[in-house]
Amino acid sequence: MEKKIKVVHITTVHKRTDVRILHKECTSLAKSGYEVHLIVADSKGDETTEYGVNIHDIGTSTGRLQRIFSSSSKAFKKAMEVDATIYHLHDPELLPCGLKLKKKNKHVIFDSHEDIYANIGEKKYIPNYLKPIISFFLSLVQTYVLKRIDGVISVTPHICDKLSEINSNIEMITNYPIIHKQNIQDTNKTNSLVFAGGVMNQWKHEFVLDALSYCENKDIIYNICGPTYEDYMAELQIHKNWNKVNYYGMVTKAEVERIISESNIGMATLIYSKNVGGKIGSIGNTKLFEYMEAGIPLICTKFVLWKEIVDKYDCGICVEPTDAKEIAQAIDTLISNPERAKQMGLNGRKAVEEVFNWASQEKLLIAFYEKCIGKN
After folding, report:
1. Which CATH class, in words, describes the domain spanning 6-176+358-372?
2. pTM across the whole model
3. CATH class of the domain comprising 192-354
4. Less Cβ around it within 10 Å: N or C end of the chain?
């Protein structure tokens, strides 16, 4: 019997249950015959998933600096103990670890989940005067390391274009959903909008709430579920239309699916920022595809990439994320035309089943691994 190729994914930032890392990449590799290990830092102990992914816990850090230095050092030590052929890194602070692994003649891949430099600019905990210094230093480290490792993965075109100038062996593997077999059925929908995800300022929920004042139907409810950030949540809770919000908090995946299925419209009014390529947008963000998978129409930002999808597959309406009147008009259009809205939802579901699904990305991932270790 041919010995399995051993793979280690490493993150000191993300949860062990991270969908992209565990449920998509690690599980796909395990199902494809690799021996897969995942190193995390959460103090929840070691375990093995049902699909055979071996999770190794190096313990939590007490702060960002300790995570960057101490956890990275522990991750490298554990990585060498596992002694794999391929190491797949998911955090910028692990780049020096990747360089050390490469010097040990290991195959190393870096997975850039987001635009690192733009993300630094948006970190509120970093003083403004330090941001250019940190960005410059990180740029030097990233360029030096990425030139020397085997390959790079990212989630959307504008990041891949940037990183391809450093390492030509790059593959875009985006976050399309894992399709679950289900029948999209009529449910007892109320006149409601839904948002499922982190309740953060970048999603501009205040403009959705503003829009409710302009809607022809004054009985529309905004269903929100997901983790909150205290300062922003406090702002939302004093909004005059907060009484039209059902905030469910953190709920199970099954409960999220129920809430979405019972809502009329999925909301994804993300602001333009450098982290998502400005007005180009990012297809690494899963919100669009989650609503499409659920079979409901969506209202989303007029990003170039999102608008191309929405227009081509006729699955929703694009708006300016800070234009409450335009958002209200889109809501009214979908609420007052239920058959049209239903067809848009079905169109979105079909597009996800045929095009925007993880199965398509899984093939790219496996092929990229084979390329990096010289099997092709």
Report:
1. alpha beta
2. 0.90
3. alpha beta
4. N
